[in-house]
Write a structure and sequence with these properties.
Largest sheet: 3 strands, antiparallel
Helix content: 55-70%
Keywords: Repeat
Shape: globular
GO molecular function: protein phosphatase regulator activity
Structural class: mainly alpha
InterPro entries: ARM-like, ARM-type_fold, PP2A_Regulatory_Subunit_A
Order of helices and strands: HHHHHHHHHHEEE
């Protein structure tokens, strides 16, 4: 409902009331709440863009970078990737404008220590930011940075990340003889969990 409300109020009111509420929801422990918050935040961004709310936009971008992209919590860094994707799909920015606002922080996550973050990043970039008009419309420097990011993810130690950016997926060995193999470098996505060596991280 917050997303729909953003179109009913001024950019000042959205910045003062709806945006802070959405940011609060975005750090919730429940994944579904975070997803709803991402949609609401993209609605705030759309409002600030359409109303040319420059002050509100500056505060919004600063909060996005501070709360999400620079967070010590991997789930919030993943929220940043998902929010960047949601905002990208609004198609309200020129390629370079979007790049200036988001790509620098986004591409810096290519070497994030958590597989979930790199996987979300690789999937978003490979499926949305290359081989299309957006990519063609970028300046040479931004295209080079995207290419470098994909090259790094193509040789990622995790098989799912490699597959997400067009690498060859290698099926997990399931024979009994593989039980003693060291498979710490790969993740397995099953039942909404990511397995990292002996650890499991709940996606929610």
């Amino acid at each position: 409902q917050l997303y729909e409300l953003t179109s009913l109020f001024s950019s000042v009111d959205v910045g003062d009331y709806i945006s802070p509420l959405a940011f609060g929801m975005a750090v919730d422990k429940v994944a579904d709440v975070r997803q709803a918050a991402i949609k609401a935040l993209s609605g705030c961004y759309l409002k600030f863009t359409s109303d040319n709310g420059q002050i509100q936009m500056e505060v919004f971008l600063d909060d996005c970078h501070r709360v999400f992209a620079s967070s010590q919590d991997w789930k919030l860094r993943q929220v940043y990737v998902n929010l960047c994707e949601s905002i990208y799909k609004l198609h309200v920015d020129t390629p370079d404008q979007y790049a200036l606002r988001f790509l620098g922080r986004l591409l810096s996550l290519k070497e994030d220590q958590v597989v979930n973050v790199r996987l979300s990043l690789g999937t978003f970039i490979y499926e949305n930011l290359v081989n299309n008009e957006f990519y063609i419309g970028l300046s040479d420097d931004w295209r080079s940075q995207i290419d470098e990011c994909l090259q790094i993810l193509l040789v990622d130690h995790d098989r799912d990340v490699r597959a997400a950016v067009g690498g060859v997926y290698q099926a997990r060995v399931t024979s009994l003889s593989s039980e003693n193999l060291n498979d710490d470098s790969d993740s397995s996505i099953q039942n909404n969990t990511i397995t990292l060596g002996d650890e499991q991280l709940n996606q929610s």
